[in-house]
Write a structure and sequence with these properties.
Shape: elongated
Number of helices: 15
Bound molecules: cobalamin, iron/sulfur cluster
Helix content: 25-40%
Strand order of the largest sheet: 1-2-3-6
């Protein structure tokens, strides 16, 4: 977990309102305004817990100390404040840095973060009523000066600036996002390679596959119909979700090969299941740290057992998420068939980082769905749960529970997997192979 020693930008917590208020006052005092101004600004500069909960408020934190913050406020209607009218829209209401840390790049980092937030939330324009002393900073950041605006203080004006979160900015963010994406993929590949060197781990995973989906991809909302009305969208789990990262950890052929003969699963399959669930947990924690180092938030999701008991359906389906992230297509056996097959496990997490999404490949990966052939998975089902036109998840679960009993010496292994072992889609994308062979 992040230990607060690395600089990071994160959502403000409601109990931090007093610290943010102090920073607001200290930053304003830095410009030597007369004391009477502060009486007028008292309300404006006081940050409450409610304010933090109802708006986008982000803090810059170093060594567990908050050194600055910014807030985006959405006005749904024009509002009148004494002589002035504040138009509806998105406003950068506050951006303040502790005076002794001004000039150290914190403002630029916060501004950079603000642009990412806007992209993630689909905000095209942000308005700023800046302190006159800060106008130069905002112009340097790409904002355009519009006009002088009457201030809440008589005979004083304040500059109005606009930030267009335009295509150029999006391209810039995406190029930054590409670097982050490469780092994320490498972090996953390296972590899995290192993890299997541990003495007590017996599974040897293949090279992971990693896919990225935009958190605002409309397909997430469709999971409420495809999976369950209670299925979450990324924003339900992380308010400022930018990207969903999905990964597939392939089992080695040696493990799959053991899971053929008997009705019950092999011990290797059971151990592979337990070890991969733990790997997904550790990998998710590791990625949380990687993203925290870049000032980004993460929400992790368990590999399994996050299902609704009486329905055996989850509110976060890793398979559907992997499909959205372009990692594969569903097989007749229900598995997500990737380019490295379907024997393996899937994980996913949500991050505030904005990264380039992956394209979803066209065409089917399952032979039955491609040309009506194969159906081996159906023939291999050991508990009459899987058919060409239906799947009985409760019968399937009964079989998994038999394996729990069988393998209790290695842990809790609710496994079976006969319908995915030693079938054409176990370790490859069989349609791709078929098409290649036909060329
Ligand atoms: C609940 C659950 C179960 C239940 C129900 C199974 C099921 N099919 O849903 C039980 C306990 C029975 C079970 C069994 C198994 N599970 Co399970 N299970 C889950 C869990 C927790 C949620 C799955 C869920 O909510 N499904 C939602 C339902 C609605 O989806 P569905 O039944 O698969 O049906 C959909 C697809 O067929 C899809 N579909 C079909 N064609 C197409 C085409 C398109 C274009 C689209 C969009 C969708 C689509 O539409 C259906 C409805 O939406 C996930 C972990 C997670 N949180 O994601 C693991 C998970 C799905 N299980 C997994 C595995 C491996 C198994 C087993 C092999 C056990 C084992 N490890 O040995 C068996 C396989 C059973 C089978 N053939 O389906 C893996 C799958 C990996 C992969 N490559 O896909 C997962 C993802 C765990 C993980 N972290 O890797 N599981
Ligand atoms: S075994 Fe054959 S029919 Fe079943 S999912 Fe794999 S490719 Fe499709
Ligand atoms: S996991 Fe086992 S019981 Fe469930 S569908 Fe596959 S073969 Fe049948």
């Amino acid at each position: 977990m992040p230990d607060g020693t690395n600089p990071m930008i994160r959502s403000a917590k409601s109990h931090e309102s007093a610290v943010l208020t102090e920073i607001s006052f200290a930053a304003k005092k830095h410009w030597n305004y007369p004391r009477k101004y502060f009486e007028i600004w008292e309300n404006e500069l006081t940050i409450t817990a409610d304010y933090i909960l109802s708006n986008d408020v982000f803090v810059f934190e170093k060594k567990s100390t908050i050194l600055g913050y910014y807030s985006i406020v959405e006005l749904t209607n024009d509002i009148k404040l004494s002589a002035i009218t504040i138009e509806k829209g998105f406003w950068l209401e506050h951006m303040f840095i502790e005076p002794e840390h001004i000039g150290h790049g914190i403002g630029t980092m916060l501004f950079d973060h603000l642009q990412q937030r806007c992209i993630a939330r689909g905000i095209g324009e942000v308005k700023i009523l800046a302190d006159p002393n800060a106008r130069g900073f905002y112009e340097k950041m790409g904002c355009t000066y519009q006009a002088e605006y009457p201030s809440t203080i008589k005979d004083r004006t304040t500059p109005l600036l606009h930030l267009q979160v335009n295509t150029a900015c999006r391209t810039f963010q995406k190029s930054k996002g590409t670097a982050m994406k490469n780092r994320t993929t490498q972090a996953i590949v390296d972590f899995v390679a290192e993890y299997q060197k541990k003495k007590d781990i017996t599974t040897r995973w293949g090279v992971p596959l990693v896919g990225f989906a935009e958190a605002t991809d409309p397909l997430f909302a469709q999971l409420k119909t495809a999976v369950s009305p209670t299925h979450a969208v990324p924003q339900d789990l992380l308010q400022h979700a930018g990207t969903v990262v999905s990964f597939f950890l392939p089992f080695p052929k040696s493990v799959t090969a053991t899971n053929i003969k008997e009705r019950l699963s092999s011990p290797e399959w059971a151990v592979g299941y337990i070890e991969t669930n733990e790997l997904i947990k550790q990998l998710s924690l590791h990625l949380t740290e990687v993203f925290a180092g870049a000032g980004e938030e993460v929400v992790t999701i368990p590999a399994t057992h996050n299902w609704i008991e009486d329905k055996l359906i989850s509110n976060w389906s890793h398979r559907h998420v992997a499909f959205i992230a372009g990692l594969g297509r569903f097989g007749l056996n229900n598995m997500l068939i990737t380019d490295r097959g379907c024997c393996g496990r899937l994980g996913s997490l949500i991050t505030s980082a904005v990264m380039e999404p992956d394209a979803r490949p066209e065409g089917e990966n399952c032979l039955y769905k491609y040309d009506g052939s194969c159906k081996k998975c159906v023939r291999k089902c050991v508990n009459e749960a899987l058919f060409v036109d239906s799947f009985d998840r409760f019968r399937c679960y009964d079989q998994l529970l038999k394996n729990v009993e069988e393998h209790k010496s290695v842990g809790y292994a609710d496994v079976c997997g006969k319908c995915l072992t030693v079938v054409p889609c176990s370790h490859i994308n069989p349609v791709k192979m078929k098409l290649r062979a036909q060329k």
